């Protein structure tokens, strides 16, 4: 599993790497998960059109989530409403 973490979230990238996840900030690598700050245009500013897999990519808004919350979402692939 490859996880993209936007560059403005280095603490999340570091923590996920410590937990053994394959993490990148390279826009040209296909990813299973994208973590960004949606409220601050993280998805738009990241230019991720090459990172999305055809079979689907989970997008996680970093928002107020702890690293444990993010890991639970990744593990369970929990989808919640945007509104």
Any overview of this molecule?
There is one protein chain. The protein is α/β, with parallel strands linked by helices and about 80 residues long. The protein has one domain (about 1-75). It is about 30% helix and about 20% strand. It contains 3 helices and 4 strands. It has a 4-stranded parallel beta sheet, covered by helices on one side. Helix 2 links the parallel strand 3 (about 35) and strand 4. The longest helix has 10 residues, at about 65-75. The protein is globular. It starts with a strand and ends in a 7-residue tail after the last helix.
Derived from helix and strand composition plus strand pairing, the structural class reads: alpha/beta
Quaternary structure type: single chain
Helical stretch tally: 3
Largest sheet: 4 strands, parallel
Question: Uncertain regions: pLDDT < 50 for 5+ in a row?
Answer: none
Mean pLDDT across all amino acids: 82
**Residues in helices, as a percent range:** 25-40%
Strands, count: 4
Strand order of the largest sheet: 2-1-3-4
The share of residues in extended strands comes to 15-25%
CA-atom Rg in angstroms:
12 Å
Q: What general form does the structure show?
A: globular
Distance between the termini: 28 Å
């Amino acid at each position: 599993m490859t996880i993209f973490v936007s560059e403005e979230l280095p603490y999340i990238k570091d923590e996920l790497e410590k937990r053994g996840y394959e993490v990148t900030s390279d826009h040209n690598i296909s990813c299973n998960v994208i973590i960004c700050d949606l409220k601050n245009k993280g998805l738009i500013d990241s230019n991720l059109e090459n990172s999305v897999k055809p079979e689907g990519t989970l997008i996680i808004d970093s928002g107020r989530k702890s690293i444990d919350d993010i890991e639970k979402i990744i593990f369970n692939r929990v989808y919640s409403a945007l509104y």
